């Protein structure tokens, strides 16, 4: 383990979030408006990003720091029956888009986490969300991707290391949760 290299990567990741602070503020405002109008947040990702999606959905549904009413939020990565039935009967590439088509309504917020920005199922999910009129948010690594261009909001972490990107995604997501905590009693 190279602690100095990891610290430098963290600094770069935090710096990229700092550069996006206005974007983060704008997103919190849009999410607050949407949630107050009865919309929900849908999260998606693969592997560690799937775990992060579940973690963040729980932060909104249960609580982040303060006790408040639950905020409608679900991770599209948690229902093993849907995941296995869909990938068996159709294909893995459409596992999120199918759920978005069934669960999302115009005005809902769809957040896709992918360190590479290339996950086909996340891209297809984002495309489905766009077609439905959802607010779309992508969190990726530093490489330019179609997902970054597709989403209404994109947070590109200035790193190519999967672990550092995931840690930054968690940092960004916690800032979203903090902003939403402040907006709701």
Structural write-up:
It is a single chain. This protein is globular. Helix content is 57%, strand content 12%. Strands 2-1-3-4-5 form a 5-stranded parallel sheet, sandwiched between helices. The longest helix is centred in the C-terminal third of the chain and has 22 residues. The protein contains 8 helices and 5 strands, in the order H-H-E-H-E-H-H-E-H-E-H-E-H. By secondary structure, the protein is of the alpha/beta class.
How many β-strand runs?
5
Pattern of helices and strands = HHEHEHHEHEHEH
Distance between the termini: 43 Å
Rg over alpha carbons: 16 Å
Largest sheet: 5 strands, parallel
- Unreliable runs: none
Arithmetic mean pLDDT: 92
Q: How would you classify the quaternary structure?
A: single chain
- Coarse shape: globular
Features:
185 residues; alpha/beta; 5-stranded parallel sheet
Task: Describe the protein's topology.
Elements: H1 3-19, H2 21-36, E1 41-44, H3 48-61, E2 73-75, H4 80-89, H5 95-103, E3 109-113, H6 120-132, E4 135-140, H7 146-150, E5 153-156, H8 162-183
Parallel strand pairs: 1-2, 1-3, 3-4, 4-5
Helix pairs in contact: 1-8, 2-8, 3-8, 5-6
């Amino acid at each position: 383990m190279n602690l100095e290299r990891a610290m430098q990567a963290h600094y770069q990741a935090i710096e990229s979030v700092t550069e996006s602070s206005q974007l983060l503020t704008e997103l919190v405002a849009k999410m607050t408006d949407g949630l107050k109008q009865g919309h929900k947040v849908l999260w998606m990702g693969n592997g560690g990003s799937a775990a992060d999606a579940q973690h963040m959905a729980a932060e909104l549904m249960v609580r982040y720091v303060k006790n408040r009413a639950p905020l409608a939020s679900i991770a599209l990565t948690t229902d093993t029956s849907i995941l296995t039935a869909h990938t068996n009967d159709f294909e893995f590439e459409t596992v999120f888009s199918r759920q978005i088509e069934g669960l999302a309504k115009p005005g809902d917020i769809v957040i896709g986490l992918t360190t590479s920005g290339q996950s086909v199922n996340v891209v297809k999910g984002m495309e489905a969300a766009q077609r439905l009129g959802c607010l779309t948010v992508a969190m990726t690594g530093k490489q330019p991707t179609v997902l970054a261009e597709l989403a209404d909001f994109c947070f590109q972490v200035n790193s190519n290391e999967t672990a550092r990107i995931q840690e930054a995604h968690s940092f960004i997501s916690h800032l979203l949760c903090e902003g939403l905590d402040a907006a709701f009693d």
